[in-house]
Design a protein that fits this description.
Order of helices and strands of chain A: E
Helix content of chain B: 10-25%
Number of strands of chain A: 1
Strand content of chain A: 15-25%
Radius of gyration of chain A: 8 Å
Strand order of the largest sheet of chain B: 6-2-3-4-19-18-17-11-15
Largest sheet of chain A: none
Distance between the termini of chain B: 51 Å
Strand content of chain B: over 45%
Oligomer: heterodimer
Radius of gyration of chain B: 19 Å
Distance between the termini of chain A: 26 Å
Number of helices of chain A: 0
Helix content of chain A: under 10%
Shape of chain B: elongated
Order of helices and strands of chain B: EHEEEEEHEEEEEHEEEEEHEEE
Structural class of chain B: alpha+beta
Chain lengths: 12, 252
Amino acid sequence: MQQSITSYFKQK
Amino acid sequence: MLEARFGETLLLKKIVDALKEIISQSTLDCTETGMQLQSMDNSHVSLVALSLQTEGFEKYRCDRNVSLGLDLKSLAKVVKSASGDDAVTLTAADKADKLLLSFESDNKSRTADYELKLLNLDQDHLGIPETNYACIVQMPSSEFARICRDMSMFSESVVISCTKQGIKFSANGDMGSANIKLSDTSKGDITIDVDEPITQSFAGRYLNTFTRATPLSDRVKICLAPDVPLLVEYPIEDYGYIRYYLAPKVDE
């Protein structure tokens, strides 16, 4: 399964 | 206003090539310290970050921060029309709706000016935390490109294992399996720093796309840590870097 990058890097 | 001069269009071409397969539109943020770009791919699995510091430019001036919404395919077309050894100057007004690109041949006998319409992009910026990577591997960028290409023939997923003994790339698919191991060399063309061993799985398609940056640098740095995205970094001469982040695959 491929996680989204946004689950590691949060919006500023 | 912004005025930034690259000594060679070839470098700008290479930068655009390194971006355009992974993102179609993006905002180039220009400040007095240089240019930055950050974008996720359409599926939000990877992130590309470009940093160009003023030191690399032949001339750089940016009085006020300006954000340039670029369509990368259009930019690629403009850049392609110039000769690689032309100098190129990017100019934009403070609240610009277009970017001017002026190309100048070596002996200044030919100049070509293009105006590129800018896009109004509403783009989110992600905060990338400082990370202490468990494994940092540096190798020739051509070697990494070759491995990514070879691996993708076998499987969608590429497993990267890194220990003090070396770095191993593995792919396992219908056709069979492939394993490529590299160890630290005394020649120094491959260096492997390991705090703790790590094994992670990644989508090979993305790794392959990252290698579009190969012409930018002879070297590539690959950084891994548990439960954080992979970092693949290509330095860009005196300018800075292009970094690609890729979320690891997780077990279902």
